[in-house]
Write a structure and sequence with these properties.
This protein has 228 residues and is α/β, with parallel strands linked by helices. It has helices spanning 33-43, 57-64, 84-91, 93-96, 118-126, 193-197, 216-227, and strands at 3-6, 27-28, 31-32, 48-53, 73-78, 101-105, 108-110, 133-138, 150-152, 155-157, 165-172, 201-205, 210-212. It is built from seven helices and 13 strands.
Protein backbone atom coordinates (compact mmCIF):
# COMPACT_ATOMS: atom_id res chain seq x y z
CA UNK A 1 0.00 0.00 0.00
CA UNK A 2 1.20 3.48 -0.91
CA UNK A 3 0.38 6.64 1.02
CA UNK A 4 -0.10 10.30 0.22
CA UNK A 5 1.00 12.73 2.90
CA UNK A 6 -1.04 15.90 2.50
CA UNK A 7 1.31 18.83 3.04
CA UNK A 8 -0.04 21.62 0.83
CA UNK A 9 -1.89 23.66 3.47
CA UNK A 10 -1.00 27.30 4.09
CA UNK A 11 -1.17 27.17 7.90
CA UNK A 12 -2.63 30.67 8.16
CA UNK A 13 -3.69 30.24 11.79
CA UNK A 14 -0.06 29.54 12.70
CA UNK A 15 1.24 32.86 11.42
CA UNK A 16 3.80 34.30 11.95
CA UNK A 17 5.41 30.86 12.46
CA UNK A 18 4.44 29.89 8.91
CA UNK A 19 5.45 33.14 7.24
CA UNK A 20 8.81 31.68 6.24
CA UNK A 21 8.34 27.98 7.08
CA UNK A 22 5.67 25.62 5.70
CA UNK A 23 3.44 24.18 8.41
CA UNK A 24 4.61 20.55 8.00
CA UNK A 25 8.19 21.62 8.80
CA UNK A 26 7.33 23.17 12.15
CA UNK A 27 8.94 21.28 14.99
CA UNK A 28 7.55 19.45 18.02
CA UNK A 29 9.44 17.13 20.32
CA UNK A 30 12.67 17.53 18.39
CA UNK A 31 11.26 16.56 14.98
CA UNK A 32 9.33 18.24 12.21
CA UNK A 33 5.62 17.43 12.14
CA UNK A 34 5.89 15.69 8.78
CA UNK A 35 8.83 13.61 10.01
CA UNK A 36 6.67 12.11 12.76
CA UNK A 37 4.25 11.03 10.04
CA UNK A 38 6.86 9.62 7.68
CA UNK A 39 8.46 7.60 10.48
CA UNK A 40 5.09 6.27 11.65
CA UNK A 41 4.17 5.22 8.12
CA UNK A 42 7.47 3.40 7.66
CA UNK A 43 7.00 1.68 11.02
CA UNK A 44 3.65 0.44 9.69
CA UNK A 45 5.27 -1.06 6.61
CA UNK A 46 4.23 1.77 4.28
CA UNK A 47 7.35 3.00 2.54
CA UNK A 48 6.19 4.27 -0.88
CA UNK A 49 5.04 7.82 -0.21
CA UNK A 50 3.76 10.75 -2.23
CA UNK A 51 3.94 14.17 -0.60
CA UNK A 52 1.89 16.98 -2.12
CA UNK A 53 2.97 20.54 -1.51
CA UNK A 54 2.21 24.11 -2.51
CA UNK A 55 3.16 26.97 -0.17
CA UNK A 56 6.96 27.02 0.25
CA UNK A 57 6.93 23.48 -1.08
CA UNK A 58 10.58 23.53 -2.16
CA UNK A 59 11.51 23.60 1.53
CA UNK A 60 9.61 20.35 2.10
CA UNK A 61 11.39 18.69 -0.82
CA UNK A 62 14.76 19.88 0.47
CA UNK A 63 14.02 18.68 4.00
CA UNK A 64 12.81 15.17 3.14
CA UNK A 65 14.73 14.49 -0.04
CA UNK A 66 14.08 11.11 -1.61
CA UNK A 67 13.09 9.68 1.78
CA UNK A 68 15.94 7.18 1.93
CA UNK A 69 17.19 8.32 5.33
CA UNK A 70 13.76 7.45 6.75
CA UNK A 71 13.65 4.07 5.00
CA UNK A 72 11.09 5.40 2.54
CA UNK A 73 10.82 6.32 -1.12
CA UNK A 74 9.24 9.76 -1.54
CA UNK A 75 7.83 11.34 -4.68
CA UNK A 76 6.35 14.84 -4.82
CA UNK A 77 3.19 16.30 -6.31
CA UNK A 78 3.51 20.07 -6.68
CA UNK A 79 0.42 22.30 -6.68
CA UNK A 80 0.02 25.96 -7.59
CA UNK A 81 -2.38 26.94 -6.21
CA UNK A 82 -3.14 24.42 -3.48
CA UNK A 83 -5.94 22.08 -4.57
CA UNK A 84 -7.45 21.07 -1.20
CA UNK A 85 -7.65 17.41 -0.18
CA UNK A 86 -9.78 15.85 -2.93
CA UNK A 87 -8.19 17.95 -5.66
CA UNK A 88 -4.70 17.21 -4.39
CA UNK A 89 -5.35 13.48 -4.32
CA UNK A 90 -6.80 13.60 -7.84
CA UNK A 91 -3.69 15.38 -9.11
CA UNK A 92 -1.40 12.76 -7.52
CA UNK A 93 -3.50 9.78 -8.61
CA UNK A 94 -1.07 8.61 -11.30
CA UNK A 95 1.67 8.34 -8.65
CA UNK A 96 -0.56 6.39 -6.28
CA UNK A 97 -1.37 3.60 -8.72
CA UNK A 98 -4.37 1.32 -9.12
CA UNK A 99 -4.56 -0.14 -5.60
CA UNK A 100 -6.14 1.37 -2.47
CA UNK A 101 -3.90 3.95 -0.82
CA UNK A 102 -3.63 5.65 2.54
CA UNK A 103 -4.12 9.41 2.89
CA UNK A 104 -2.86 11.23 5.99
CA UNK A 105 -2.35 14.86 6.88
CA UNK A 106 1.19 16.07 7.47
CA UNK A 107 0.13 18.27 10.38
CA UNK A 108 -1.34 15.66 12.72
CA UNK A 109 0.59 13.81 15.38
CA UNK A 110 -0.67 10.37 16.29
CA UNK A 111 0.46 6.98 17.48
CA UNK A 112 -2.14 5.20 15.40
CA UNK A 113 -0.84 1.90 13.99
CA UNK A 114 -0.83 2.49 10.24
CA UNK A 115 0.11 -1.15 9.74
CA UNK A 116 -3.38 -2.12 10.87
CA UNK A 117 -4.78 -0.66 7.64
CA UNK A 118 -3.15 -3.14 5.26
CA UNK A 119 -6.02 -5.61 5.70
CA UNK A 120 -8.51 -2.77 5.21
CA UNK A 121 -6.85 -1.86 1.92
CA UNK A 122 -6.94 -5.49 0.82
CA UNK A 123 -10.69 -5.68 1.46
CA UNK A 124 -11.35 -2.41 -0.38
CA UNK A 125 -9.36 -3.76 -3.33
CA UNK A 126 -11.58 -6.85 -3.47
CA UNK A 127 -14.89 -4.98 -3.46
CA UNK A 128 -14.49 -1.29 -4.37
CA UNK A 129 -18.13 -0.90 -5.41
CA UNK A 130 -19.23 -1.82 -1.89
CA UNK A 131 -16.41 -0.20 0.06
CA UNK A 132 -14.91 2.93 -1.48
CA UNK A 133 -13.09 4.19 1.60
CA UNK A 134 -12.31 3.73 5.27
CA UNK A 135 -12.10 6.59 7.80
CA UNK A 136 -10.34 6.68 11.14
CA UNK A 137 -12.42 8.80 13.53
CA UNK A 138 -11.38 10.24 16.89
CA UNK A 139 -13.22 11.61 19.93
CA UNK A 140 -14.15 15.26 19.48
CA UNK A 141 -11.40 17.63 20.63
CA UNK A 142 -12.30 20.68 22.70
CA UNK A 143 -12.07 22.99 19.69
CA UNK A 144 -14.48 20.86 17.62
CA UNK A 145 -17.12 19.61 20.06
CA UNK A 146 -19.85 18.97 17.47
CA UNK A 147 -17.85 16.43 15.45
CA UNK A 148 -18.23 15.56 11.77
CA UNK A 149 -19.92 12.16 11.40
CA UNK A 150 -20.97 9.06 13.28
CA UNK A 151 -20.39 5.31 13.24
CA UNK A 152 -23.06 2.65 13.00
CA UNK A 153 -22.21 -1.04 12.62
CA UNK A 154 -18.77 -0.21 11.30
CA UNK A 155 -20.06 2.24 8.70
CA UNK A 156 -19.63 6.01 8.61
CA UNK A 157 -22.89 7.95 8.52
CA UNK A 158 -24.15 11.38 9.45
CA UNK A 159 -27.35 9.85 10.78
CA UNK A 160 -25.78 8.10 13.78
CA UNK A 161 -25.17 10.09 16.96
CA UNK A 162 -23.03 11.07 18.77
CA UNK A 163 -20.86 12.45 16.04
CA UNK A 164 -17.09 11.94 16.07
CA UNK A 165 -14.28 13.89 14.40
CA UNK A 166 -12.63 12.88 11.15
CA UNK A 167 -9.06 11.99 12.12
CA UNK A 168 -7.42 12.94 8.79
CA UNK A 169 -6.51 9.28 8.25
CA UNK A 170 -8.24 7.43 5.39
CA UNK A 171 -7.87 4.58 2.95
CA UNK A 172 -9.36 5.17 -0.51
CA UNK A 173 -9.84 3.18 -3.65
CA UNK A 174 -8.43 5.28 -6.51
CA UNK A 175 -11.50 4.64 -8.67
CA UNK A 176 -13.46 6.92 -6.35
CA UNK A 177 -11.41 9.92 -7.56
CA UNK A 178 -11.60 9.30 -11.29
CA UNK A 179 -14.33 11.89 -11.74
CA UNK A 180 -12.52 14.60 -9.76
CA UNK A 181 -10.87 17.32 -11.84
CA UNK A 182 -7.15 17.08 -10.99
CA UNK A 183 -6.37 20.77 -11.43
CA UNK A 184 -9.32 22.36 -9.65
CA UNK A 185 -9.39 22.93 -5.86
CA UNK A 186 -11.88 20.58 -4.21
CA UNK A 187 -12.42 19.75 -0.55
CA UNK A 188 -12.91 16.19 0.66
CA UNK A 189 -16.13 17.21 2.40
CA UNK A 190 -19.00 17.54 1.66
CA UNK A 191 -18.10 15.56 -1.48
CA UNK A 192 -17.44 12.31 0.44
CA UNK A 193 -20.71 12.48 2.37
CA UNK A 194 -22.57 11.00 -0.61
CA UNK A 195 -20.48 7.82 -0.38
CA UNK A 196 -20.99 7.78 3.39
CA UNK A 197 -24.76 7.95 3.04
CA UNK A 198 -24.64 5.19 0.41
CA UNK A 199 -23.01 2.92 3.01
CA UNK A 200 -19.75 2.68 1.06
CA UNK A 201 -17.44 4.11 3.74
CA UNK A 202 -16.37 1.95 6.67
CA UNK A 203 -14.86 3.41 9.80
CA UNK A 204 -13.25 2.85 13.14
CA UNK A 205 -12.83 4.83 16.34
CA UNK A 206 -9.28 5.48 17.53
CA UNK A 207 -8.92 6.77 21.07
CA UNK A 208 -5.15 6.99 21.42
CA UNK A 209 -2.82 9.99 21.10
CA UNK A 210 -3.93 12.32 18.32
CA UNK A 211 -3.29 16.04 17.77
CA UNK A 212 -4.33 18.19 14.84
CA UNK A 213 -1.96 21.14 15.05
CA UNK A 214 -3.76 24.29 13.98
CA UNK A 215 -2.54 27.07 16.26
CA UNK A 216 0.68 28.18 17.90
CA UNK A 217 -0.73 27.23 21.30
CA UNK A 218 -1.54 23.70 20.10
CA UNK A 219 1.95 23.35 18.64
CA UNK A 220 3.56 24.52 21.89
CA UNK A 221 1.42 22.12 23.91
CA UNK A 222 2.36 19.17 21.67
CA UNK A 223 6.02 20.14 21.82
CA UNK A 224 5.89 20.21 25.61
CA UNK A 225 4.22 16.79 25.88
CA UNK A 226 6.55 15.12 23.36
CA UNK A 227 9.61 16.70 24.97
CA UNK A 228 8.62 15.32 28.36
Amino acid sequence: MKAIVLAAGRGARLQPLTDATPKPLLGAGGKRLIEWQVEALVAGGITELVVNHAYLGSQIVAALGDGSRYGASIRYSAEDPALETAGGIARALSMLGDEPFLAVSADIYTRFDYGSLHSVADDIARRPRERAAHFVLVPNPDYHPSGDMGLRDGRVTREAKPWLTYGNISVFHPEHFLGVEPNVPMRLFPWMYEACEAGRVSGELYQGPWDNVGTAAQLADLDRRLSE
